[in-house]
C-alpha cells in the first residue's frame, strides 16, 4: 500500500524552478534541506469529486506510487518521497536531466545499429524488471525514455501514471496512451497484457532506426486505422536503405496484431539483433546505421506538435476563464447577469439564454 506523508513539502524541500508539466501536474526541481541533494518534485492535482474531470483520481495516484515503490532498477526512475496534501499529491522523484534519448542520438554525426541495439537492450532490461512483477508500463514512447544526465548513457524509463499490474488471465481493458504507440488491443477495447508494452517497443525501434513513425496518419482516426490494419512496411529506401535485416526481423516479431504471438521481453533480449550469435550478425549491426537526418525531422515535428498543444490548452483555459468571469458578473443590485441575456433581470424567474455556437 502506498504511504504518504502529510506534512508540508516546504518543511523538507526547497522548491526551485519549473522543469516540466503535464495535463494535471507540474514538475519542479526541489532540493532536500537535510542533504542538499536535488530531486524532481511532481505536483499532481487531485480530482475534487467523482463528477469532476479536472485532476487525477486519488486511486490512480495511489496505484502509480505503489508501483514505483515496488520497482528498483538502474534504468527506472526511483521514488524518494511522497506527500499528500488537501488539493494535491507531491512525488519526490530521482532527477533526470539528460533529455530524451532520441534527441541525444539525433545530435550525433553517425550512429550504427550496434549502439542503437545497446540502448534498446537497456529499455528491455528495465521492462523485464517490470514484467517479472506483472507490471505493464502502457505509455512507452520517446518522451518517456530519458538519459539520466548528459555525462552518462544510462537511460531511464519515466512516467508511470498509466501503469497497471496485469496478472496472467486477468481481463483488464482500457483506452489509454498516445495514438502512434498504442497496440491494436487498446483501440479494439480488448484485454491488455504485458505484451501490450512489446508492441510499443516495436514502434519505438522502427522510429529510432528510420525517423519514420510507422502508423502515424493525418489525424487520430487514420492513425488508429493504420494500427488495427498493421499497415507498415520497410520498402521506402529514403528511410530503410541502411537498416539491417536483423533489425527488421526484430520489429516484425513485435508488430503483430495478436498479442500472444508477439515476442516477449525475454525473447527480445535473446534476439540476434540484441545479442548476436555470430560474427556475421555482429558485422551486420556495425555496418548498418540510423537515418539521423530523418530522426532530427521527427524530433522537430514532435516539438512543433507539442508547442501547438500548449497553445491550444492556453487558448482553452483563457476561454474558460472569460466564460467564468462573464457568468459571475453582477448588476448594481447584486443580481447575476447572464452574459447572453439582453433584457432586464426578472427576480422571480431564471434568465433566458441563447446557445453559444
From TrEMBL:
Ordered alphabetically, the record's keywords are:
ATP-binding, Kinase, Nucleotide-binding, Serine/threonine-protein kinase, Transferase
- Gene Ontology MF, one: ATP binding
Binding residue positions for ATP: 46
Bias (Polar residues) ranges: 347-357
Task: State the InterPro entries in the record.
Answer: Kinase-like_dom_sf, Prot_kinase_dom, Protein_kinase_ATP_BS, Ser/Thr_kinase_AS
Q: Does the keyword Nucleotidyltransferase apply?
A: no
Question: Which residue stretches belong to region Disordered?
Answer: 337-357
Q: Where in the numbering of this chain does the Protein kinase domain appear?
A: 13-274
Task: Tell me which Gene3D superfamilies the record gives.
Answer: Phosphorylase Kinase, domain 1, Transferase(Phosphotransferase) domain 1
Pfam families, A to Z: Pkinase
Xref: PANTHER family: DEATH-ASSOCIATED PROTEIN KINASE DAPK-1, SERINE/THREONINE-PROTEIN KINASE 17
> What family is it from?
Belongs to the protein kinase superfamily.
Q: What is the designated name of this protein?
A: Protein kinase domain-containing protein
Organism for this UniProt entry: Strongylocentrotus purpuratus (Purple sea urchin)
Amino acid at each position: 500500500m502506498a504511504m504518504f506523508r502529510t506534512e508540508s513539502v516546504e518543511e523538507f524541500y526547497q522548491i526551485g524552478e519549473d522543469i516540466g508539466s503535464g495535463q494535471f501536474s507540474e514538475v519542479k526541481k526541489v532540493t532536500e534541506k537535510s542533504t542538499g541533494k536535488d530531486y524532481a518534485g511532481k505536483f499532481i492535482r487531485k480530482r475534487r469529486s467523482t463528477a469532476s474531470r479536472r485532476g487525477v483520481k486519488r486511486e490512480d495516484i495511489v496505484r502509480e506510487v505503489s508501483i514505483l515503490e515496488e520497482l528498483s532498477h538502474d534504468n527506472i526512475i526511483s521514488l524518494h518521497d511522497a506527500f499528500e496534501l488537501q488539493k494535491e499529491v507531491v512525488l519526490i522523484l530521482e532527477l533526470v536531466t539528460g533529455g530524451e534519448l532520441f534527441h541525444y542520438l539525433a545530435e550525433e554525426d553517425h550512429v550504427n545499429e550496434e549502439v542503437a541495439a545497446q540502448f534498446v537492450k537497456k529499455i528491455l532490461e528495465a521492462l523485464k524488471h517490470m514484467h517479472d512483477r506483472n507490471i505493464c508500463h502502457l505509455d512507452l514512447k520517446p518522451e518517456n525514455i530519458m538519459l539520466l544526465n548528459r555525462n552518462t548513457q544510462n537511460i531511464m524509463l519515466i512516467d508511470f501514471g498509466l501503469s497497471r499490474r496485469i496478472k496472467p488471465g486477468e481481463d483488464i481493458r482500457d483506452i489509454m496512451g498516445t495514438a502512434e504507440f498504442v497496440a491494436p488491443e487498446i483501440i479494439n477495447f480488448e484485454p491488455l497484457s504485458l505484451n501490450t508494452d512489446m508492441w510499443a517497443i516495436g514502434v519505438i525501434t522502427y522510429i529510432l532506426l528510420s525517423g519514420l513513425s510507422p502508423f502515424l496518419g493525418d489525424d487520430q482516426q487514420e492513425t488508429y486505422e493504420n494500427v488495427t490494419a498493421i499497415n507498415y512496411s520497410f520498402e521506402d529506401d529514403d528511410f530503410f536503405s541502411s537498416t539491417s535485416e536483423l533489425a527488421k526481423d526484430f520489429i516484425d516479431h513485435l508488430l503483430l496484431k495478436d498479442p500472444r504471438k508477439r515476442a516477449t521481453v525475454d525473447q527480445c533480449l535473446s534476439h540476434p539483433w540484441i545479442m548476436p550469435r555470430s560474427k556475421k550478425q555482429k558485422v551486420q549491426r556495425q555496418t548498418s546505421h540510423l537515418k539521423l537526418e530523418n530522426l532530427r525531422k521527427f524530433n522537430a515535428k514532435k516539438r512543433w506538435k507539442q508547442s501547438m498543444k500548449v497553445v491550444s490548452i492556453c487558448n482553452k483555459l483563457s476561454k474558460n476563464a472569460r466564460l467564468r468571469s462573464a457568468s459571475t458578473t453582477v448588476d448594481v443590485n447584486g443580481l447575476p447577469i447572464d452574459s447572453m441575456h439582453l433584457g432586464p433581470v426578472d427576480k422571480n424567474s431564471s434568465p433566458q439564454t441563447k446557445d453559444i455556437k
